[in-house]
Amino acid sequence: MKNILIKIGGSVITDKHSDSGSIDAENLQRIVNVIARLKTQDRRLIIIHGAGSYAHPYMAKTEKKRGMYSCDVDNIRESMSELSAIISGAFSNAGIENFTDTLPENFCGKPEEWQGLVSRWVGKSEHSVPLLHGNVVLCKGNVLKISGDELVEKIGSAWGKPLIVLVSKHPVCDKNPDFDGGAKVLSRITPGVFDSLKNEANQNTRRLEDLKTPYPDATGSMLGKLEYLVRLAGGGIESYIVNIEGFEKIFDNPEKVLGCGNGTRICR
Q1: DSSP the chain
Q2: Does the pLDDT at position 192 exceed 60?
Q3: Beta carbons of 186 and 193 less than 8 angstroms apart
Q4: Alpha carbon distance 267, 163 (integer Å)
Q5: What is the pTM (predicted TM-score) of this model?
Q6: What are phi and psi of 197, to 5 degrees?
């Protein structure tokens, strides 16, 4: 049985540009349908979802005005719990046994803290689907943002080399496809390719789809996601970043998904 770790981007299941929580019901149902099919194949799954319009706008506005304080943590964590409950309900309606969990409010990311959480999630995956997300936490009175992409790396490196699939608005492109009609999908990213992209991004050539949004990803952009996945690729863990169309086919025919421009493979 192949372990599968899936990260659902917040921009795929919500309207990230909305001032308040807004669900994309069609995309959510498409994702649920794929996960239900995987469960019939007796796969072990762990699902991580992004924050989207439920938390990113609030976080962006808060930080722009005055930074983030501990009093903001409850509001953001409540928003994330609300989104998680909606996704969990969609899974349950499809007959997918699942449970929701998140980072403790007081969490400093020490190795022993991560080990306990990851062990619990991996163990639970034997019988149901863990539904997880990044969050804001308190560490000695300071507010820390821990992204879902960081959870991907922590779980991926401890779960027997799972297949990792990130569902995003776009695969990895050479330019921002939202603002450049000539953007081309990069079908394969290796550590060497990533270093080249990273250097150009640092020179403000903006070759990655990660900028110019009114409410930017508060915990990481496409470049940040790739950093985590490239490190995992160094340990032999293959991953994909796909759009919603690619997600529906990636588990049956990954080469076709890459050939159609609906996905990017990250490997060594």
Answers
A1: --EEEEEE-HHHHB-TTSSS--B-HHHHHHHHHHHHHHHHTT-EEEEEE--GGGTHHHHHHHHHHH---HHHHHHHHHHHHHHHHHHHHHHHHTT--EEE----SB----HHHHHHHHHHHHHHTTTSEEEEE-EEEEETTEEEEE-HHHHHHHHHTTTTS-EEEEE-SS--BSS-TTT-TT--B--EE-HHHHHHHHHHHHTT---SS----SS--TT--HHHHHHHHHHHHHTT--EEEE-HHHHTTTTT-HHHHHHTTSEEEE--
A2: yes
A3: yes
A4: 11
A5: 0.90
A6: -65, -40
For the record, the structure tokens of 221 come out as 């952009």
Residue 27 has pLDDT above 80, yes or no: yes
Question: For the chain, which domains are there?
Answer: 3-266 (3.40.1160.10)
pLDDT, residue 201, reads: 58
Residue 194, both tokens? 């990533």
